[in-house]
C-alpha cells in the first residue's frame, strides 16, 4: 500500500510538472524612444540565446508568449543601446520599455533598422525600408531631403523623366501605386511639377515601399504600396526644427501636451521661387506664379494602458501660372483618426477612419485691352476626387511561431470629373460632367507561421468588391472595330446610390522564406491585386491635371498577378547585404486610348477608351553597405514592360511608356570627419519609348512625316544619366542649438536629358521638319540649405 501511494504521489508530481511545463504566459507592451517618446517600429524582442522572438508593429506594440519560468528578455535596435531584463513568468505581464540612443553606434552606422528588420530575417519579398536619417545622407535637389527622390534610387523604381509626377514601379503607371500618409490615400504625391514630394521630412517617421508579395491588408492598387507614417511628436520636451534654403523654408514644432501621455507635432513649408524670380520677369511674364505650401499636423493621447487615440492631417497646394494668361492650381487634403486598443495581451486592434480630397483646376484668361472690338475670353476647368474610409484591423499573437492578421475595409468615392466655365464677352456658359460614385469594400485574413528559425511562411486571402453607384447617367455602347470610337447604343438614369455595376474578386497572397545556410536565404511570393480606379492621361507632359475615373459598366477593374523569387545574403558582421529578385507581372484591363482621344470635359469619354493586356518582367540586384565611414548602395534593374491592345499597333505587343531596359543607381556617403560628410548619387537609365514618324511623303514641296508601320513606341528617347553631389557641414553643437549647412549640386556635369522630342518647322525652310529635344533641366543647379534644431 505504501509503495502504491508513493507511486501515485510521484505520478501526480510528474503530471504537475508536465502541466506547469506546458503553461505559457505572455509579455506585451509598447517600446518607445527614451529621448522623445516616439513609438519604435520593428524593435526586436527576443529570449536571449534562442530563436524565440517577435518585433513591434507600426504602433510600437509587441506580444511575446513563452513557457512559465525565468527568462532573459532582450530588446535591441541598431542605433540604440540594447536592454536585457530578467523576468520570472508566472502570469501574463504588461511591460513598457524605453530605449536610449547609443551615440557610439550612431557615429558609424547608418540607422536603417535592426537585425530583425533585415531582409534575411523577414518573410517579405520586394520590401524596402527607409528612414529620415538615411535620406539625409543622400544628395538632395536644391539642398532639400525628399522622400520620393530617395525611393527612386531603389531597384525597380523609376520615372518617365525629370519633372514627372509620381513614380513607376516594375513597369506600372503612376496611378497603380497606393500612397498612404498615416493610412489616408494621397492622389498627387508631388509639388512643383514633380520636383519635390508632398511629404515634409521633418514630420515623417518611417517609409515602407512594397513592390511585391503584398500582405493581405493592402489592396486597391496593382504595382506598389508606399506606406508613410508620421511622427507622433515629442512627449518629453518641446522642440523646434527648421530649415532655410534657396527654394523654400520649413518649420516644425513638437512637444508634450501632457508629458508621457500626449504630444503634438505641427510642420509647415512654403516655397518662394516666384518671389526670387520676380525682379527678373518683365512684360507678360511679370505676374508668373510658381509656389507651393503644405501643413502637416498630428496629436496623440494615451487614454489608459489599453487605449491610444491619434489624429493627423495634411493640407497642401501648388500654384503655377504663366503671367495672367494660364494658371494651374492643385492640392491634397487628408485627415486620419486612429484608435489603438489592446483587448488582451495577445490581441491588438487599430481602427482607422480617414478623409482624402484631391482637387485641381486650369484657368485661361485672355482679357482684351483694345476696347470693345475684341471680347474678353475666360475659361476655367475644375475637377476633384473625394474619399471617406474606415478600416478596423486586428492582430492575434497566438505564440512565437504564429500570428493572425484580419480586418475589414470600406471606402466611399465621389468623382467629380470636371466642370468647365467659359466667359466670352458678356456671355457665360457652363458644362458640368456627371458626378460618379463608388463603394469599395474588402475583408482579409492572413496567417504568419514560423515553425523554425530556418523556415517561415505568410499566406492569406483578400476578398475585394466594388459597386459603381448612381446618381447619374450610365452609357451603353455598341461593339465596334477595335481602335475606332464606340457608338452609343443607349443610356439609363440611376437614382442616388442605386447599383449600376458590381465587381468582386478573390485575391490570394503567399510569401515564404527558407534559410539555406547561415546568412543565406531564399524567398518566393505570389500575389493577386485588383484596382478599381484609373487615371486617364494621353500626354507625356508633366502636369497634375490628369483625370481620375472609377471602374464602370464599361471600364473593368485592373487585375495583376505577380510572381517573385529572390535571394538574400547578409554578411556576418552586418557590413553589407546582397540581394537579387526576379519578377514576372501579368496585368489585365489596363486603359489605353484610340488615336486622337479627347479626355477633358468629354461626357462620353468611355467611347474613346480601350482596355489592354500588359506584362512586365525583370531582374533586380542590390548591394548595400551600412557600416563604416563609407556607406551606400548600388542597385541595378534589367526589365521589360510591354502592352497589347486590340486596335493598336496591329494588335501586336508594343513597349509600354514606362519601359526602361536598364536602370542603375549608385549612392555613396563618406564621413570625412565627425562634422562633415560628402555624398554622391549617379543614375543611368535607358530612354523611354516614344512614337515617331519613320517615313515621309513629299507633296508640293512639303515634307509630311508619318508612321508607316502604324506601331506605337517604335523608338526610344536618348539614355538618361545624371550625377548629384552634396556636402553636409555640422556647426558647433551648442547645449540647445544644433545647426548644419547642406551644399548641393544637382546635375553636376550639366546633362540635357530629354523628357520628350517633338517636331516643328525649320525656321530657315518652313517646308522641312526638325526634331527638338525638350529638357526640363539642362544645366547645373546649385542649392544651399541651413537646418537647425533647438
TrEMBL record:
Localization recorded for this chain is: Cell outer membrane
| Listed Gene3D superfamilies | Carboxypeptidase-like, regulatory domain, TonB-dependent receptor, beta-barrel domain, TonB-dependent receptor, plug domain
Q: Which residues span the membrane? A: none
Q: How does the protein associate with the membrane? A: Multi-pass membrane protein
Give the signal sequence positions: 1-21
Give the record's keywords alphabetically: Cell outer membrane, Membrane, Receptor, Signal, Transmembrane, Transmembrane beta strand, Transport
Q: Which residues form the TonB-dependent receptor plug domain?
A: 143-222
* Keyword Membrane recorded: yes
Into which family does the record put it?
Answer: Belongs to the TonB-dependent receptor family.
What is the protein named?
Answer: TonB-dependent receptor
